[in-house]
Input
Amino acid sequence: MITRGIDTTTTALKWALNELIHHLEIMRKAQEELHKVVGRNRLVLESNLHNLPYLHAIVKENFHLHLPLPILLPHVNSKYTQILNYKIPTNTNVIVNIWAIGHDLNAWKKPLEFNPDQFSSSNINVKELNYNL
Output
């Protein structure tokens, strides 16, 4: 259990650093925000986080592109549901491919491009259940 929890966190961090290394203009913008809010001579504190919206946008975009789990664990719907033309009876096992949703050309302008700006004005909280993310 501990290894699984650590692995998803380290994988997310590796992907975020990889994207920043390959998008230096985004990294510079994040550094400028950090220097402005935190300064250059001290560590980031949790109390600083609410003043770092671009850093939040980078985290959201990283989750959008590089999910820790591309397919959600099976869920069971508690009541009859119809989504578009699909009828899903009560107690049906449902497996959601969230990778496909996050890379859908009909839902995202450029789903394969690392672009935190698409989340910069978003109030989506990564700690809550939010289908837009």
Summary: The chain has one domain: 2-119. The chain has a mean pLDDT of 87. The beta strands are 75-76, 81-83, 86-88, 93-94.
